[in-house]
Amino acid sequence: MPAKTLFIVQLFERSGKRLIGGRALDFRTADEAVARAERASTTAVGVVAIQHTVDTDTGEVLEEPVVLSRFGEVPAEFREE
Q: Is residue 81 part of a domain?
């Protein structure tokens, strides 16, 4: 089962009272993703950088996503509890 770790930056926009996912950007390293999320936080309503590992054959998520950083308003699943 070949695995790949992905580093994703997800931008959020406001639609009325709801937050909706905007662009998602893929990066090679966690540091690149965190830096991009921080830069995007100046223009987006919310931004989150996450890391997760997937099976490259099936696309199945092998590990729960890890939030690397968050900025602004983000959905509940990305907030610190």
A: no
Q: Measuring CA to CA, how many Å separate 31 from each of 7, 36, 37, 39, 79?
A: 9, 9, 10, 12, 20
- CA distances (Å), 2 to each of 21, 33, 62, 68, in order? 28, 23, 11, 23
Domain count, the chain: 1
- 27 occurs within a structural domain: yes
Per-residue pLDDT tens over the stretch 29-79 = 999 999 999 999 999 999 999 999 998 888 888 888 899 999 999 988 888
pLDDT at 80 over 80: no
